[in-house]
Write a structure and sequence with these properties.
Length: 386
């Protein structure tokens, strides 16, 4: 957190320069002295303990990047229904942004920066903050997307037969997904290995080196599809119309910076992680028609495909209302996760090119449903130092 505060103070440097009195004989204002002290501190911290033959600091501290990326966010939700004959029926809804592309900008000083990007093929946006030094990295990201055409799979089995069918549903009101992602890393070989050289180019790796690393990751997601037009999906999810889950993981892994030639850098990072905190809140809804609670009258019937695949009670949607009822909370289910990253970088004197990719997967499970949210992202960035 102290590193992020230092970064925001650095954003004041241009303002302090413009606010100078223009006369060399006058003393600098207190705020200017403070900002310049922070600037000097940041400039020195990144290289205070590094071996300069392995890691170099660019002379120009500021950088602006033009970014474009390709990504996919996917969500899978499954509910199971015991059958009278001893079998089990399940319904799975899968949503995805599909292969989407976005464009955006990033601005920073010595590895402390922020960025924003907008999907070119959908409605998603991403906002990010970052703080990186020679042996540490902190990233914060908020991502949103919507999906109105989930793939819905109905599956059931019994002693007599089994049935499986998938079709694409069209929702009048889309499923809305909002995710917050925060991770931090510490490199034990900060003298020879630079995390910043691979992921924001505030430092430059001159010789190949690797490092053991420790990491902490926090993830929070909210998923909502509680509009009354989505009542069949809510009913199939056992009356659940909104999910919120938070996960925290700690792990240890290894990262390696390979320098095959001057200016080039290839980074690989792999970190198995243990989920030590896993909190899930499932929001159940009750159905009202003309002010009358009809929740218990909605019957879902898997009828072995004899006439229609699935039947449910008749609903007058114009008079339907969904009201939030009970909230089911599940805490502290320990699980395994991992973090994996790959970056390829080329540095010129005052600019650089970075190709970067990562994959994250976050499973969840409670008494009502189970599923997972996954994200892969690959992007290219061209940066200019000034």
């Amino acid at each position: 957190m102290r590193k992020l505060i230092l970064f925001f103070l650095m954003m004041l440097i241009p303002l302090s320069v413009c606010a100078g009195d223009g006369e060399s004989g006058k003393k600098q204002p207190f705020i200017v002295k403070g900002v310049m002290w922070v600037k000097t501190l940041i400039d020195s911290m990144a290289v205070a303990t590094v071996d300069r033959s392995y890691i170099e600091q660019p002379k120009k501290p500021w950088a602006i990047e033009v970014r474009t990326d390709a990504s996919e966010n996917s969500l899978k939700m499954t509910s199971e229904f015991p059958r009278p004959n001893g079998g089990v029926a399940s319904l799975t809804a899968k949503t995805s942004t599909g292969f989407s592309t976005s464009a955006g900008l990033w601005l920073g000083y010595r590895g402390y920066g922020f960025g924003w990007s907008k999907d070119l093929t959908g409605e998603g946006t991403t906002f990010s903050l970052g703080a990186m030094g020679g042996s540490f990295g902190i990233n914060f990201r908020i991502n949103t997307y919507r999906s109105d055409t989930p793939d819905v799979t109905i599956n059931y089995s019994s002693t007599e037969k089994s049935y499986n069918e998938t079709e694409k549903a069209e929702l009048d009101d889309p499923i809305r997904v909002r995710s917050l992602f925060l991770d931090g890393y510490y490199m034990f070989n900060g003298k020879h290995f630079s995390y910043a050289a691979a992921y924001d180019q505030s430092l430059i790796q001159r010789k190949s080196a690797g490092s053991l690393m420790a990491g902490l990751m926090y993830y929070h997601t909210s998923v909502s599809f509680d509009d009354k037009s989505n009542w069949p999906l809510v009913a199939f999810m056992k009356n659940i119309g909104k999910l919120k889950f938070s996960q925290a993981s700690v792990g240890a892994g290894y990262a390696y910076n390979w320098v095959p030639a001057r200016g080039w850098l290839v980074n690989v990072m792999v970190m198995p992680m243990l989920q030590f905190y896993n909190s899930i809140s499932a929001y159940a809804y009750r159905f009202y028609e003309d002010g009358i609670d009809i929740t218990d009258d909605i019957i879902i019937d898997f009828n072995d495909g004899k006439d229609e695949d699935v039947e449910y009670g008749e609903i007058d949607e114009s008079n339907l209302e969904l009201r939030m009822g009970e909230v089911y909370k599940t805490n502290n289910r320990i699980g395994l996760n991992f973090d994996a990253r790959l970056a390829v970088v080329y540095n010129w004197n005052n600019c650089y090119l970075r190709l970067f990719g990562h994959y994250n997967r976050f499973p969840y499970h409670n008494d009502k449903s189970n599923g997972r949210l996954a994200e892969w992202r690959a992007y290219a960035a061209v940066g200019f130092r000034f």
